[in-house]
Amino acid sequence: MDDLKNPSDSEPCLCLWILQVVIVNGFSSVVIWLLLTPKSPIYVITDVYIPTLDGRNSTFHHAGNISVLLNLQFSNPNKKMGIFYNNINITLYYRHAVIGSHHSLPAFYQGFKNTTVYQVLVTAHHRHLRRHRKGVKHATTGLRVCLENVVKYKILGHTTKHHQIYKEAYVPVGSDGRISGEKKIKLSRNKLKRFQFALKV
After folding, report:
1. CB–CB of 144/168 below 8 Å?
2. Cβ contact 96:115 at 8 Å
3. pTM for this one?
4. C-alpha to C-alpha distance for 195 and 191, rounded to whole angstroms
């Protein structure tokens, strides 16, 4: 009878084993969640050109509508996850006034760790750029570039639901009609501006 083990002696071992299983499963779940949680695309403005603000270019100075050329860079930072881009809309602001917009750029699919470059032509209203041109002379001008679009992620052969993205950036413009200072400007999220934009719409 002395050789029989007391059942209570095995309880600590059983509890320890259960605890180890819970810890391992919890850690595995966190790792899987991190691996399968997609990162938002990265949007960068690599160049801006406004011909009518270029003091060396007199061709566009008297046009009723003028053009704003934007070079945008879309980057997918995810590993093993593709991105479907859709409903890409660009809106330009000078101070609080909308000076132009470009709606529904062509949708496209982007593989993981890839970068896509877009050149966007936006027709702006000349009356708003008169004040803009005055600002250039005093080096105080700039545009607010707002981007809205919908993305879906392709993960392990499955496609996620739609995710709405809103990003914006302030772009200083010099007397040559191009970006002044930093040449690559990253668009970032702004919850307050997104709320204000939704109210205007």
Report:
1. yes
2. no
3. 0.74
4. 6
What digits encode the pLDDT tens for the residues 97-148? 898 898 888 999 999 999 999 999 998 876 666 666 655 555 557 889 999 9
* SS3 assignment, position 169: strand
Cα 185 to Cα 46, 67, 71, 132, 182, distances in angstroms: 7, 20, 11, 20, 7
> What does the alpha-carbon distance between residue 37 and residue 164 come to, in Å, rounded to a whole number?
16
Which residues, 6+ apart, have CB-to-CB distance to 142 below 8 Å? 135, 170, 171, 172, 173
- Please give the Cα distance from 43 to 116 (Å, whole number): 10
How far, in Å, are 98, 134, 146 from residue 82 at the CA level? 33, 44, 24
Q: Which pair of structure tokens corresponds to residue 67?
A: 């053009």
Dihedral, CA atoms, 159, 108, 142, 48, nearest 10 degrees? 150
CB-count burial class (<10 Å; 0-12, 13-18, 19+) for 137: exposed
Question: In 10 A of CB 66, how many CB atoms?
Answer: 23
The CATH class of the 40-200 domain is mainly beta
Distance, in Å, from the CA atom of 94 to the CA atom of 172, rounded to the nearest integer, reads 11
